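Interim report, section 4.2 (structural modelling).
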Amino acid sequence: MAAVLESLLREELSVAAAVRWIARSAQSSEDDPREAAALSSLRPLRKEFVPFLLNFLREQSSRVLPQGPPTPAKAPGSSTGLPGRSGGPPRGGRGARNQLFPPIEASSATAADAPSARRGGRRRGPGPARERGRGPGGLEEGVSGECLPWAGGRRPRSSGSPSSPSLARSDPPNLSNLEEFPPVGSVPPGSAGTKPSRRINPTPVSEERSLSKPKTCFTSPPISCVPSSQSSVLDTSPWGHGLPSGCRSLQEEREMLRKERSKQLQQSPTPACPTLEPGSPHPSRTGHLTAQPADPARVSSRHRLELVALVYSSCIAENLVPNLFLELFFVLQLLTARRMVAAKDSDLEPTPGAVDSLESPLFQSVHDCVFFAVQVLEHQFHVLSHLDKGTLKLLAENERLLCFSPALQGRLRAAYEGSVAKVSLAMPPSAQAVSFQPETDNRANFSSDRAFHTFKKQRDVFYEVLREWEDRHEEPGWDFEKGLGSRIRAMMGQLSAACSHSHFVRLFQKQLLQMCQSPGGAGGTVLGEAPDVLNMLGADKLGRLRRLQERLVAPQSSGGPCPPPTFPGCQGFFRDFILCASSFQFNQHLMDSLSLKIRELNSLALPQPEPSDEDGESDVDWQGERRQFAVVLLSLRLLAKFLGFVAFLPYRGPEPPPTRELQDSILSLRSQVPPVLDVRALLQQGLRARRAVLTVPWLVEFLSLADHIVPMLDYYRSIFTLLLHLHRSLVLSKESEGEMCFLNKLLLLAVLGWLFQDSMPVVDQQLLYTCCPYIGELRKLLASWVSGSSGRSGGLVRKITPTTTTGLGAQPPQTTQGLQAQLAQAFFHNQPPSLRRTVEFVAERIGSNCVKHIKATLVAELVRQAESLLQEQLVTQGQEGGDPAQLLEILCSQLCPHGAQALTQGREFCQKKSPGAVRALLPEETPAAVLSSAENIAVSLATEKACAWLSANITALIRREVKAAVSRTLRAQGPEPAARGERRGCSRACEHHAPLPSHLISEIKDVLSLAVGPRDPEEGVAPEYLEQLLGQLGQMLRCRQFLCPPAEQHLAKCSVELASLLVADQIPILGPPAQHQLERGQARRLLLMLLSLWKDDFQVPVPLQLLLRPRNVALLADTRPREWDLLLFLLRELVEKGLMRRMEIEACLGSLHETQWPGDFSEELATLFNLFLAEPHVPEHQLRACELVQPNRGTVLAQS
Amino acid sequence: MILTKAQYDEIAQCLVSVPPTRQSLRKLKQRFPSQSQATLLSIFSQEYQKHIKRTHAKHHTSEAIESYYQRYLNGVRENGAAPVLLQLANEVDYAPSLMARIILERFLQEHEEAPPSKSVINSMLRDPSQIPDGVLANQVYQCIVNDCCYGPLVDCIKHAIGHEHEVLLRDLLLEKNLSFLDEDQLRARGYDKTPDFILQVPVAVEGHIIHWIESKASFGDECSHHAYLHDQFWSYWNRFGPGLVIYWYGFIQELDCNRERGILLHACFPTDIVTLCHSVA
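Predicted structure of the assembly:
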């Protein structure tokens, strides 16, 4: 392999030819024969070239930076030119992302000739430490540094300015900052003293960069094995700048230090992976911290460096490297190399493959490194110019860059100044619980009351668990399973019915989206940060503080430029919930639901710039569309990640199958299992419809969680093949018509690069072509995609079609239908997408409102009719009214036919409402014809939606509502007619100043308790107080503002008790001891007040018969002498005022005889009875007369 | 009336083993003249209920019931007009209304074939004139009107207070022009949990967004607040987002700690309400 490089260096071969040779299997006619000859001899080595080159560069940089560990990383695919992995045991613990293509396949594909971009850096011996400590899901715990590029998700136009909000976030190293917070657990005791200095002065690490630096970064060190107690050494200053690049370089320094330190401590020439060992020594800052200045004049072999940089850049440009951003990362590492320790021979092991001119190190000094880096950066300016403003600034301000290439610096500065791609670390907007929606959540959506109430409880348990997790998951020693596991399982255990599962899954999924995928697209996942829970639920400042704290406390790690898939922040809750619940049913429903949602979102119409519009960037619609796209994209990625997680969960294991036989049997089993979601079809559709920019990013998320076997399954293998093709085809430098715009490509490259990172070394195109029968087809697809014409907006058309095709009444003939569809398609085709969205939106809403309106009018009216019919039925058939089920049938048979009106009314409604809405939402300037077409389409769409629903459901709806009305009415017939027709409120003038009912009940209760005792001698009530109390009672009963029926009932009862006590003269009156009883006149006044209240003010039945219950009558027995006149007065007044009928009173008096009374009392009672009976028609004057004949209290009856 | 935990504890300290009579209330008012009576009564009632919950079981052992019944029988045999049942309740430190229930139940067991149903007992407690024994009827009635923490009358008063405050709150919302859905409307729509009011357009109170308001005509002490949080407030949050709880009779200041999380406490209708501004052309 080195021979190729040698040829290049000797200029026997042009770089262009070499790259052509690498990229294509066949020689091109453009190649000159001499070159062809030189290359043909090397043909078998062609596919090794890129990995060779990459490893070569890593090695070269390590040779001049000798203090890192030697190059264990490069062992298998190193620049020796040996073929890739030679069938060593597969690495353990990784998912598909790390092992897309198993070693067996790789080694068997010896004839493969595509560049496999093997990354020696990943090749370690037994599983890198990052694999350790994974949870049951095989994923790192508590990682918040996942690199999710393209956070902004905004998609500027292809020819737009170099602004790119998305790119800024996309740069993985910026955010993943892997060495930012090294594990405390690994700090050797002696280094503790250096911690403070780390905090104060994080940046100035200047000693040589470790050769293993790139390797470590590339391998995204183990998050999980990092002990969590490390707050004291955390350094937050880089975040203070908020400039990702700063983080990057600091990260490098940390890494260097770590290496250096480990080397010093271990004194081992070949530590397998010292930095990754959990217990490995920690770097300290005690080293040499100053950066060595770089000087262009001291570059050692300019020409050679230029050539290699050109070859390297060309490989990058042709996407021959697996991950563009890793290479940029590496280059920036070279650019920012601090210092070289003079190379010592003892450190140099001759590289077996190095020959001739390659024997002398490529990088002999910092000057060489910087020179090389700047050369490459010059070639990559286009990509750089799309980075975020902060990164651009750092680059533009880099003094080495200025020194080595003022021209590049100038271009970067210009790019920086022109950039609007500011990436703010915006706080995620506050998230809340999923709101209760009656349409989907009320009783009607459940099979039984029990299911409804069970789900009610589950919702609350779910949030209780979530809140507890928020509060406690950062506490040391807190464990999800221990803390919440049993509660979660108990809750899941109650989800018996399938219907309940779907409800819970909907809640779960919505909450997931709400918490982990903020609408602004700035959620935690995007930035690879844990979204701040506290902040989500509340105050901003506190949130910031908390987030800072989180950074300080959490086992912070980052995956480096290519981190493993993780579940940062709140995502961790949902992952752990799934694991803890360990419910097959839940997982199945969740997968169903996730798949559906993914399909739904994936069909989003991609934003398209409006044709007439000149300034696309500022156009509001366009921005809105891009924002929407970003939201959808991020949601999709989140959903797909969880779908992948759940779908592959049963197959995840710590180890790949140990033997070929076992693996084969697993393969044959797995190959018959249909995929959880037909992602291949979606990918194919996406490619065909030129929607890869939406589909691929979530697909990558999904695949990143696949298990070991997945990449070997034909189905998934074909997907990887497609993706690989896509990757290769996304050549950034090509910007032809019909091509994807730059940033779209960059997004795909980045996600794919991430996905392929590990797998590239063992895969090549030939292998894929050989193994996958679909490839010929795919190639055709891809070809048509690349050359495809623009403007085919399939999604749009498909969406619109049904509106015009499905007629409501008479179906138009097939041909007309087709024509209508075409017309509608044509209509929207040349209109701005916002028009289509508006029409669809209006139709959707009006259709839905129409249904609601029908419910509120027609159905409500039918229910009213049902109620009155039922009332009639009850009157004619007596209170029972017959069997409720039968009643319901009768009613429904009468009423349901009226449901037919719903369609007519629905049509009218849509016709009336839609046009206005469309008009209000479209620009004023919309041409009349366009407007009217849009209105018509909206009307028919809305009508179709409404009528489809109504015709399918109206009968059932009427039935349901009538049934509810029947049971309501029948219930109301029950024993509590009470205050149904209660008159609420008082006159408008009333200011509601009457005392409150509760106060009056309480006061009357006190009077009653005083009366029945026991009481202190000095206790009693003033007569005026009693009058006042009754007056207030009247006031309150007339106001009624605060009165509720139970209170009124109790007041009525208490007032009767009070009357009994008055009649029996049992109320203790305040005043001189001799006068402890009410005056007769006072008592009578109070009774009259009560009578008036009963007659005019109480609206509930007053239990007057209580007056003649034995208990109340017995009160009289206690008084000496007995006083019957007040009772007689009261009874006569009751009859007089029509409050009780004579017959009633007679019956009550009669039944009093049944009680055992003292002899004399019985007699007096009989006398009272006779006296009452003796006056059958009592005129008022006679009553008064009666009063007059009893001048002395209590004597008359006894005498008579 | 927002009390600190310390202030509250001081009051609660004075309530240990105080019988729930009007005399006790009078003394309490004299002891804490600066506190509102309603607040004191609410605290007293809640403390007493806690006490009863703690001791409930020991009054319901069959031995205890038997002993109370015998004491009652002996007492009324001696003097049926004396407050036998009420004194018994006070002596054994139990609520008079609940003691009345125990004795009534025991009495009916003795005098009827079938054990009395709960609804029969409740009905007799509401209207003691239905009790077949005149003496017992009077004794029960005396217990009920003298009990200021338990019994049908107290229940009714509490219910009325709750209702009145809901009405009050409704009026205030109407006055402030804040449109809302009330509990009945929510129930009619099939909501599974219903705060007193859901605001149709959220407002901000002291900078906190609120979607719903719950009226509590009681004092918010730790015990009741935690129960409400668990059974109601968090459930509302889980469905409708952050909201406001008004404890009309005050609460322990320290309990207002979930503001950031979305549960805001107030002792009256808030004055600092910010509404969504519609640009008025």
